[in-house]
Structure formats: C-alpha cells, structure tokens
Amino acid sequence: MPNLNKLRTAISGGRGGDPATDAAMSRLIRLRTTLTIFFALDGFLFAGWVVRIPAIKQQTGASASDLGLALLGVSAGAVVTMMFTGRMCARFGSHPVTVVSSLLLALSIALPARTHSALTLGLVLLLFGAAYGALNVSMNSAAVDFVAALRRPVMSSFHAAFSLGGMAGAGLGALVAGGLSASTHLLALTGVGLLVTVLAGPSLLRHTLPPAAGPAPSPGKAAAPRRLDRRTRRLVVLFGVIALCTAYGEGALADWGALHLAQDLDAGAGLAAAGYSLFALAMTVGRLSGTALLERLGQTRTLVAGGALAALGMLLGALAPTTWLALAGFAVTGLGLANIFPVAVARAGALAGPSGVAAASTLGYGGMLLGPPAIGFLADWFSLPVALTTVALLAAAAALIGYSARNVSVPDSGAPAHRGVPAEIPAEFPAEAPATARTAHQEG
C-alpha cells in the first residue's frame, strides 16, 4: 500500500490536512484494500482448481487430448464472457459486476469434482470459465479506474495480490492433496469464496472513486474515444501478441505443471501440487520488484531479459530428468514471465489509451486460456515434456518481438492513456518521474 503522504499528494496535488482530502484518501485506502482482496481471491480459487486437475483427470478417466478438450470449456466460457463483460461494466458499473462474478466463480468451482466424464467436465468448465473471465475483466476495469483516480502506478500490486492468492491456493492444495478428496477440497473453496465475497462485496459496492484530476466529461456523456491510425492499431496488436505469448506459459503451467511432475517425474501428490505454488511465488517476487527493475533497466531490457530467462527456465522445467531440477526451472520461468505482461499492456496503453489496454489484455488472457488445450493436444501427439517446450518458444518469441519494437514512441498528442494521467507517461511509471517514462521506449 502506498503511504499516506503519497496518497494525499496523488489526490490533492501536494496539499494535505483538509477534511475533503482526508475523506477521499480514506475512501481510496478502503477501496484499494477491497480490490486487493478480490484479486487475491481470484488467484486463490483458480489455483485451488488447477492443483486438483490430476485427481479430476483420474476421476473422469480422460486421456490427455480429452482433458485438453474439456479444458477448452474454460477458454470458451471465458472468451465469450470477456466479449460483453466490458459492456456490462459500462452499464452497471465494474464494482457490481465484480461482486456478481465472484459469487458465480465461488459457486462453480465445486462442480468439476462432481463430474465423471470428459464431456460433463467440459460442460461445467464452461460455467467456471465464464465466471472467471467476467471476474478478471470487471476487477481489472475497477483497478484501472482506481489507478487513474490515484494517479500512481499501483496496478502491478493488484497482480501481485493475484499471484499471492495463487501461491496460497496452490500451497493449501499441496497440503491437503494427500488427505482430502478433490470433491471435499473444492467444496471448501466454494465456502471460502462465498464468505469472502459476502464480507468484502458490500465495501466494494459502497465505495466509489473520487473524481480524478483533469477535466471531466459532461454528466451522462462518456469521453470520446481517440481514433487510432493503422500503424498504432498494428503496434497495439504487437504488444497484445507479446502478452499472449507470456500468458500462454502461465496458463500452461497452471493446468499442466502438476501433471508433468506427477506423471513424467513420479512426484508425489503434494510435491506435484507445490510446483505451481513455487511458480506463483517466483512470479509474485518478480512483480513486487518490478518497479525497481523497470527503473533500472527500462521497459525494453526488462521485457527482453524476462523473455530470455523464462525460455531458459521452461526448457529446464520441461526436460529436466529430476523433480527438483524441474521445480527450479518452474521458479526461473516465474521470475522471467512476471513483468512481461504488465510491460506489454503498459506500452499498448501508452500508444492507444484504454482501448489499447483492453486489446492487449484480451489477447493476453486468450493466451492464458487457450494455451492449456493446445498443450493437451501436443501431449497426446508427442509427449507432455515436448509440449511444454512450446512455452519456452513463445517466451523467446516475446523477447524478440519486444526487441523489434524498442524504438516505438508514445504519441505526443491525443487522449491520455488513463484518466488523470499525462499522455506521455505509461501507466507503469510513477507520475513524479516523467523523464524516465518518456525515454524508456528508446532503449535497446
């Protein structure tokens, strides 16, 4: 959490002590805490599901390709939902949509353990994927609005909370995998999700954002979107592809990492489940240190170094002959992937504003959701270790694409990327350091 002086400065431009500023500051603190809880809950529930995939595969008797098709239900449900969740947020507000989506996610996570065939598993995963996609779009929309109102680069802290939640969920799964059935475990996660949503939801619904600095649109009218030229659209897609390449790896490790350790390296249930927990821990550490890394290396070097590190780590994780070497590879992969997605989305947002952020994020989530089914098909055709090497290939591709875009410049005019943030400052950089933000795109 940023300290109170930084919050006060962000709200009032440096003036503190008046009741209105203190009240706005308190609202922002409470809202940030609540949003952080929802991000952590999302990661916790999702990780709780993925560490039980080996048990549910055995329960349903599905082959690798059948499981891949079933997992496609998550992808299909999420992608379809993402297409209209933004409109729902615009109509009803991102906060109510976040609460409803969280309730649906908590209810749907218990369903996969009740299935006994790949077909029924795929059908219930459609609902699970729909809830997951809606929650991710709505809570990220709420977080983007929060960052705009605060005018500080705190988006990465929300994603760190997601990673921490994932680490906790995977760690808990590793502890109970040997003693609890998948059905009991996932039903308990439903209870946790409902309880947290019921307790935190009213706070999210009650607290609205204070007005951001800068001119506001007229009542009842949204700000006019900036018209993008063809070159800018291509560049946004380019950064979206970088996000897709890296999110592919996160989704693949989430759904197939534990199975690789258990099936190919004969790891026990607890140790196999710990693989994703270690990956999530490394990614969390990388995201928590992301601001310092960006300030030292700049965006391009951070992106290229992260992609190269993730590629090397995943080659080790996929092809290592022992469990411990594979776990080390998972950790290195998490460190490498940690900041690539935020950098890619920030570059897209600096180029095209909110539409750029939305496009890159959607492509990124598409990679996370469509990667696991692709791994399943490749595992059936070749083997799971060979299939997992595609994560390394795409991470290396992200590094190459990022290097090729090192000279992309931020437009000098046009609407700002976020409400209340100067147009030349990418969202991942502190508002008080414009010089760093303006020169980062020129680095090689």
Automatic annotation (TrEMBL):
Domain of life according to the entry: Bacteria
Domain Major facilitator superfamily (MFS) profile: residue ranges: 28-414
Protein name (record): MFS transporter
Membrane-crossing segments per the record: 35-55, 67-85, 92-111, 117-137, 158-180, 186-205, 235-259, 271-290, 302-320, 326-345, 357-375, 381-403
Entry annotated with the keyword Transmembrane: yes
Entry's localization field: Cell membrane
UniProt KW keywords: Membrane, Transmembrane, Transmembrane helix
Topology class, membrane: Multi-pass membrane protein
Pfam families: MFS_1
